[in-house]
Amino acid sequence: MENGNPIIFEVESQWLMEDEMRLNASSFSPDAAKALVLIDELKSKGVNIAVVDNIVKDVFYPTRFKRIYAKEGTSFLSSKDIFDLVQVGKRIKNATEEYLIKPNWILVTRSGSVGRVLISNKYISKAAISEHVIRVVPDKNTPIGYLYGYLLSTIGQSLLIKNIFGGVVDEIEPHHIKSIPIPRIQELEEKINQKILDVCKLREEAQKHLLKVEKMLYAELGLPELKREEVEYFGGEDGRIIRSFEIKASELDLRLDASYHLPLFHLAMQKLRNVKSGIFRRLKDVANSFVPPRFKRAYVKDMSKGIPLLQGTHIPQIKPLDIKYLWKKMKNLEKYIVKKNWILLTSSGTIGRLSLVRNQWDGWTSTNHLLRIIPNEREIHPGYLTAFLHSTYGQIQFQRLIYGGVVDEIGEAGELFNDVLILKPNDENIEKKIGKLVFEAYDKRDKANRIEHKAIKLLEKRLEELAKG
């Protein structure tokens, strides 16, 4: 169905007998049929067509297991977490060897949002990965970058998605990836492979910068770490189990919700006020902030007629996945356009995730579920402000503003945003050094995404040209 109308198409009978002898229409969608026709045309032109299984060592996913979460242990990443620019995840104490991965493996999501692809690097390989991610293990001759680019292309995606099964949750299995046909053209392979390897290097450098910034912020400013063990709860150790605490009536601020009075927040503010390396500024002193009104979205499929729309899920991602486009002529569109050096912070759902807007996102639109923070660059470096708000001291201040019974919200906290405290360094060089590193991190992320996009378009164009002969 498309726009409520059935899609009617024909398929070659030989395709029905291939693979798993499937009769579901989605396995023979127009996109999948187009990809299969392209492969047949390339084969007829003498292009060597292999299958993925021929060029890799293994394709698998580990067995299911019950996670035992803990404060310390191995970092555990879900199929969603692996696409974050800085992977946080949770900690488990029962990770086994089969859940650990190595750098330069190709990871493919197999459940839910099927077919998302990523090359692992040295940071992600320190974590255990969910069984909802298929591991493609290369051998020494595998053109990793080319295989990755091919699986991300419209051809590779069509061949991946056509194998989806499941009545409620979409799924694919390793043998579906193994059987995907892949053209082997040495010159094209070498070119695409090198471009994608450059992409991986840039992304790893971006992650390195942001991890360095986090340590630098605490080291340069002498910020003490926040430890939950330091919080005093009402009732001693028994009170710690249910996190019960008391608050003075004079500190209620007409708020009776417990989240507003988190003891960890008060501990953070106490520690922050003891720091002598900077001065305190309220957010309203160094930036403007607002959340635009709700709006009815007019989407378009033709990208030339639309502007990319950033949603909350895109903010932490290494690249925005499944982007939709708003119609360029939509009423009041200018209210939702974001600009370079703005900070976008999730204000609905998972609160406090943030990203700095640089050249790539400049002029894009974003939903009303994202708080816009517009730094006054005469007062504070946008990169430094991003780093501080991303720290525990920034995050805990947003967490206390949460309200809502079903979905967490801070979007209508209004004037309370103004009182978020910012520690501005006395030494301007520290602020600039941290800010510059944040700029470089997000610039490298954006550059990597541009190179990847161009590489995949080049791959698609070249294969289509060869097919036409």
Descriptive labels:
469 residues, alpha+beta, Adenine-n6-DNA-methyltransferase TaqI, Chain A, domain 2, 2 domains, 4-stranded antiparallel β-sheet, 17% strand
Fold-level CATH name of the largest domain = Adenine-n6-DNA-methyltransferase TaqI, Chain A, domain 2
Question: What structural category do the secondary elements indicate?
Answer: alpha+beta
Overall mean pLDDT stands at 90
Helicity, as a percent range? 25-40%
How would you sum up the global shape? globular
Number of helices: 13
Strand percent estimate: 15-25%
Q: Total number of β-strand segments? A: 19
User: Which CATH-level-2 architecture of the largest domain?
Assistant: Alpha-Beta Complex
Poorly predicted runs: none
From the alpha-carbon coordinates, what is the Rg to the nearest angstrom?
25 Å
> What profile does the largest beta sheet have?
4 strands, antiparallel
Number of domains: 2
- CATH structural class of the largest domain: Alpha Beta
Tell me about this structure:
With 469 residues, the chain is of the alpha+beta class. The chain folds into 2 domains: 1-184, Alpha-Beta Complex (Adenine-n6-DNA-methyltransferase TaqI, Chain A, domain 2); 214-223 and 275-444, Adenine-n6-DNA-methyltransferase TaqI, Chain A, domain 2. Helices cover 34% and strands 17% of the residues. The protein is built from 13 helices and 19 strands. The strands form 6 sheets. Strands 2-8-5-6 form a 4-stranded antiparallel β-sheet. It has a 4-stranded antiparallel β-sheet with strand order 11-18-15-16. A 4-stranded mixed β-sheet has the order 12-14-13-17, with no helix packed on it.
